[in-house]
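Sequence in, structure out. Go.
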Amino acid sequence: REIELITISCSKALETLEYLEEFIKPGITTKKLDTLAESYITKIGCIPALKNYEGYPATICASVNDTVVHGIPNNYKLKEGDIISIDLSVSYKGYYSDIAKTYPVGNISNDKKELLRRTEESLYLGIEQVKPGNRIGDISNAIENYAKKHNLGIVRELVGHGVGIKIHEDPNIPNYGEKGTGPLLKPGMIIAIEPMLNLGKEDIYLSDDDWTIKTMDELPSAHFEHTVLVTDIGYKILTKR
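Output:
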């Protein structure tokens, strides 16, 4: 029953993200995207889970260019060539989901295209390690190896996590680590895997607002996330059609 409700929550989160996609164009403010997200989530019978979570003031995290995660929506107007990561979570009957994706705004540079492609690819390589008997370290190691191979900075201070009756549950899922280490994966577990990779170095800092996390070298960062169920034989991505 719980898996069923979390699955519905995940489909609602995906639906919201897909609804927002058509508005991601030069000229729109990140605040407008947030307003659209909140009204849509409410309309489809869910609660915006991030709003007021530990004091966070908005429905979505809107992280532009060198913002890694937790960008607070504001009056910034998206420009041609920007990239924006949208991270959102919804609560459906008390059950949670988590999803993130980084989008190009109009035409973007080849460097940014590669960053988006590689970060998303690292997510799927991590997901491929999800099966009973494997460990969290197998996911982490797959992401780390791919990121290193392509000279991308791995954000170490922020991690994936369990998800279900709370947004963030155990276990933590770092984007680096050793094979065969960490908690054992078992059928019925639901986890959010979320690589955050930088075009430059891995160093990050927390802005004065106590939320926004940016790259130290001001180079762009990308973030992709899926909520994944461990099944009897492998995995099912709950935030994907």
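Check: The longest strand covers residues 83-88. The mean pLDDT is 98.
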